[in-house]
Write a structure and sequence with these properties.
Shape: globular
Largest sheet: 4 strands, parallel
Strand content: 5-15%
Helix content: 25-40%
Number of strands: 4
Order of helices and strands: EHEHHEEH
Radius of gyration: 14 Å
Number of helices: 4
Length: 139
Amino acid sequence: MSTSATPSVLFVCVHNAGRSQMGAAFLTRLGGDHAQVRSAGSAPADSVNPAVVEAMREVGIDISAETPKVLTVEAVQSSDVVITMGCGDACPYFPGKRYLDWQLDDPAGQGVAAVRPIRDEIERRIRRLLAELGIEASA
């Protein structure tokens, strides 16, 4: 665990433009100050997927100002929980970290209608993760 009592969670997908952005946004919204949240990609895109931005806006979360970030070894090392979402072997592994691999459809190239079920599944998993971490979800 990190040096503070607040767990640090890193969401990783290839482009950091969809799934990992949604995961980070939901954890930030539902976990508040009770979790440190990061997201990154092994091959970051230039911008967040517009269909993902719209799908999140539908549930009252604005991620339009977010930008994809490159995955660094330091980000993984400083995280207590690393949640991969299709980054394959690109995510560095460090013993003692908790890794979760969430198999989710990739929203790349999809419209908002296809993104909604992915968004909703990510929210369900975030709520379950919060419960596992002993954090009461707000909202």
